[in-house]
């Protein structure tokens, strides 16, 4: 059973790897033996995360990347292809949020959130999949969605729309890339307090979330690691593609 989740010899690329959730997922993959490449904009923050990852006896590197810039994404894909011979696991975890009231949302804010949450995932997958397709290397892509992708949450219309888009392109790419042995799945987290949503977690909103969550608590970032490791493993999830794996404490199952 341990061998089923052994990721030794695999290279995991975590886009948005300096975020709370991204770094925690990277650490979980490292604990299962995967070598790690983090991407992000904050080199100083990355250095501390890399140090912790390396304590698991794996290699860990950082490529400064701005997912809002297609050239920056392409550069990261080129570096990984040339220096590492391709990737095995690709996590798309970069994300931003905003609680701007509906009538106050302007085009710039809409575009900014869509660029990070949706557009970057599309073009990251395109660039990285193209490299592995040529190498016939296969791979596992794991996109990070949200419970708001299924039933849009109040106060975060742009975020909800972007995450619904993630679900759609995940299913599309699962079909498109299956012949290249690249699996594409998404994880749908519930409420995991992180940089992008702490500012909108008012007392009233926290109460509303808890009233709708059977487990009556927020998730811990470490509770996403199991789903990520499972989807990353070819032995454990080799026939799983186009799936949405929900980790939400029962939030999505609650109707009344």
UniProtKB/TrEMBL annotation:
One of its GO terms (molecular function) is oxidoreductase activity, acting on the CH-OH group of donors, NAD or NADP as acceptor. Coiled coil: none annotated. One of its GO terms (biological process) is bile acid metabolic process. The keyword NAD does not apply. Keywords: Oxidoreductase. The keyword Lipoprotein does not apply. It holds the Pfam family adh_short_C2. Belongs to the short-chain dehydrogenases/reductases (SDR) family. PANTHER family: 3-OXOACYL-[ACYL-CARRIER-PROTEIN] REDUCTASE FABG, SHORT-CHAIN DEHYDROGENASES/REDUCTASES FAMILY MEMBER. This is NAD(P)-dependent dehydrogenase, short-chain alcohol dehydrogenase family. It comes from Lentibacillus halodurans.
């Amino acid at each position: 059973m341990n061998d089923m989740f052994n990721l030794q010899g695999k290279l995991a690329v975590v886009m948005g790897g300096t975020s709370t959730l991204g770094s925690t997922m990277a650490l979980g993959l490292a604990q299962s033996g995967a070598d790690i490449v983090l991407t992000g904009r904050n080199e100083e923050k990355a250095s501390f995360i890399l140090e912790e990852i390396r304590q698991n006896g794996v290699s860990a590197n950082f490529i400064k990347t701005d997912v809002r810039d297609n050239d920056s994404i392409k550069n990261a894909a080129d570096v990984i292809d040339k220096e590492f011979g391709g990737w095995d696991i690709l996590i798309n975890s970069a994300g931003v949020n905003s609680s701007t009231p509906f009538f106050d949302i302007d085009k710039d804010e809409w575009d900014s959130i869509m660029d990070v949450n949706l557009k970057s995932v599309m073009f990251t997958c395109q660039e990285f999949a193209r490299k592995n397709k040529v190498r016939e290397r296969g791979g596992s892509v794991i996109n990070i969605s949200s419970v708001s992708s299924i039933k849009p949450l109040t106060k975060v219309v742009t975020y909800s729309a972007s995450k619904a888009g993630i679900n759609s392109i995940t299913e599309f790419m699962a079909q498109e890339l299956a012949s290249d042995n690249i699996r594409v799945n998404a994880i749908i987290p519930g409420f995991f307090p992180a940089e992008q949503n702490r500012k909108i977690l008012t007392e009233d909103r926290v109460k509303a979330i808890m009233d709708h969550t059977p487990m009556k608590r927020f998730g811990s970032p470490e509770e996403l690691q199991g789903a990520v490791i499972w989807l990353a493993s070819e032995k454990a999830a080799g026939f799983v593609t186009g799936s949405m794996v929900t980790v939400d404490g029962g939030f999505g199952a609650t109707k009344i």
